């Protein structure tokens, strides 16, 4: 008669079933909603070993305590940072789930990074060297999946999903440290060594995939710019739908990785578009296009140097700053942007013209304010950039003379203001302190002094005569007569300064009238 299973057999079977249940719960914890469909002996040896070695993890799984199980699993991972078998098992599990339609960023990221790092681990590769080619193909498959999902995410308006795909690809071609950091973000410690040469080989694969993605985006953008239906809706002077192409490129260059080819093309499209817009009639549109170009220029500029002005990239950057100057409202901004444009390409004629125009504008404004040194500075800059400007030589010479009398000019302006306010004493004081050098300013100061003395003399004389008439006593009038000596002296001074016959005649008439008045008062 056949006997039943022994107590030890039953105990062993119970332990096996319990361990199987714990592993199933652990998988459910690691991959919620993703049941494991593959059943084969030894598949979970590393997980079974981890569960068996951790009483606290096993207890938490048996009790269905997810929080405690998660905490204990993190402890297992930390202790197994150099456990090749554990990381291989995780790489297999994460890859299987990354290939399903429900894959998310974590599954694909972890699978890709773990497989790359394991392929660069001498211990892992040495255990089964005959699998090296198959595993490399597996990694290439995961890399291509990143590109495919990233491209689909951009096409469906999900830039953040695409950014995650690009983030992982960048980590994979940046080296071991970047990949270990990415795993750490998913709470998977990794402590194995990695062969630099092997990582460089894989980085080459990643770079080729990323470049292919970039090429695909550029080709799609170029097709949009040449779409006949789109072009038919554009103004007659625009032969490409720049906006459609730029709109296709923009999300790609915003993924956080610098793509010189896409950046250069996008910036050149912006520049060509701007060149079709008139500064006056299309100013608002010009500002919008220039604002859109900034994202491309800001990313491209750090990738270039100013020592190659003939390169396509440098010329594109230079043109961008020239268009930025065209769209600026402030003179200072226009000048600053043109100066930057010429740093990138000294032969940029548009930037030169805009800069010269604004230098002349500043020179004239400074001249109007009497800041002749400042006017001279800007005029010379304009002259240096474009010596054949009509009238600039004469303007420079005039400013050179006027700059010598800049203080005199400011004094003249002050004296004129005082004269308008009938502040004759203050005006005379200001004018007497001036020492003009230019002949025309000598004459202007003399003329203003004449007006000041004439104005003061006539005003004072009228006050004295009016006062004498108010107190119509002979004694008062005789006493008042001598007060007219000072006004008469002012008019005599003014007459001596007069260079025009009409001024001298006018002053002479006023002098005669005041002298006659003084004579009458004395004889009262």
UniProtKB/TrEMBL annotation:
Source organism, top-level taxon: Bacteria
Keywords tagged on the record: TPR repeat
SUPFAM superfamilies (UniProt xref): TPR-like
This protein's name: Tetratricopeptide repeat protein
InterPro entries reported for this sequence: TPR-like_helical_dom_sf, TPR_rpt
TPR repeats: 356-389
Species this chain originates from: Actinomadura barringtoniae
């Amino acid at each position: 008669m056949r006997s039943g299973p022994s107590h030890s057999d039953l105990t062993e079977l119970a332990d096996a079933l319990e361990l199987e249940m714990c592993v199933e719960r652990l998988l459910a914890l690691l991959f919620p909603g993703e049941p494991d469909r593959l059943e084969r002996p030894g598949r979970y040896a590393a997980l079974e070993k981890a569960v068996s070695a951790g009483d606290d993890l096993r207890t938490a799984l048996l009790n269905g305590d997810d929080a405690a199980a998660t905490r204990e699993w993190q402890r297992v991972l930390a202790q197994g940072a150099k456990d090749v078998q554990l990381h291989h098992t995780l790489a297999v599990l994460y890859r299987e789930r990354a290939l399903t339609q429900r894959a998310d960023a974590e599954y694909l990221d972890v699978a890709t990074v773990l497989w790359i790092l394991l392929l660069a681990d001498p211990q892992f590769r040495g255990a089964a060297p005959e699998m090296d080619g198959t595993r490399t193909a597996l990694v290439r498959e995961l890399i291509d999946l990143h590109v495919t999902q990233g491209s689909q995410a951009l096409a469906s308006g999900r830039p953040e999903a695409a950014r995650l795909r690009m983030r992982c690809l960048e980590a994979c071609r940046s080296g071991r440290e970047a990949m270990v950091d990415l795993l750490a973000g998913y709470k998977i410690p990794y402590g194995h060594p990695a062969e630099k040469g092997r990582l460089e080989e894989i980085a080459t694969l990643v770079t080729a995939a990323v470049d292919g993605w970039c090429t695909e985006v550029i080709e799609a953008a170029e097709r949009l710019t040449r779409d006949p239906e789109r072009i038919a809706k554009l103004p007659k002077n625009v032969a490409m739908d720049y906006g459609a192409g730029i709109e296709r490129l923009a999300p790609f260059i915003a993924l956080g990785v610098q793509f010189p080819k896409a950046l250069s093309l996008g910036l050149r499209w912006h520049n060509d578009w701007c060149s079709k817009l008139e500064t006056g009639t299309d100013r608002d549109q010009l500002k919008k296009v220039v604002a859109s170009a900034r994202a491309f220029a800001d990313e491209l500029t750090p990738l270039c140097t100013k020592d190659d002005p003939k390169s396509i990239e440098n010329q594109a950057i230079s043109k961008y700053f020239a268009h930025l100057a065209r769209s600026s409202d402030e003179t200072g901004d226009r000048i600053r942007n043109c100066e930057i444009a010429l740093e990138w390409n000294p032969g940029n004629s548009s930037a030169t013209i805009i800069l010269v125009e604004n230098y002349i504008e500043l020179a004239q404004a400074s001249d109007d304010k009497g800041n002749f040194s400042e006017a001279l500075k800007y005029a010379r800059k304009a002259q240096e950039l474009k010596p054949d400007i009509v009238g600039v030589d004469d303007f420079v010479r005039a400013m050179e003379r006027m700059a010598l009398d800049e203080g005199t000019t400011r004094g003249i302006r002050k004296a004129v203001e005082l004269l308008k306010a009938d502040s004759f004493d203050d005006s005379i004081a200001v004018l007497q302190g001036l020492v003009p050098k230019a002949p025309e300013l000598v004459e202007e100061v003399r003329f203003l002094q004449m007006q000041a003395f004439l104005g003061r003399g006539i005003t004072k004389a009228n006050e004295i005569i009016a006062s004498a008439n108010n107190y119509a006593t002979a004694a008062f009038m005789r006493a008042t007569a001598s007060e007219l000596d000072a006004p008469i002296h002012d008019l005599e001074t003014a007459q001596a300064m007069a260079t025009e016959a009409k001024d001298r005649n006018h002053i002479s008439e006023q002098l005669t009238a005041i002298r006659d008045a003084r004579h009458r008062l004395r004889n009262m």
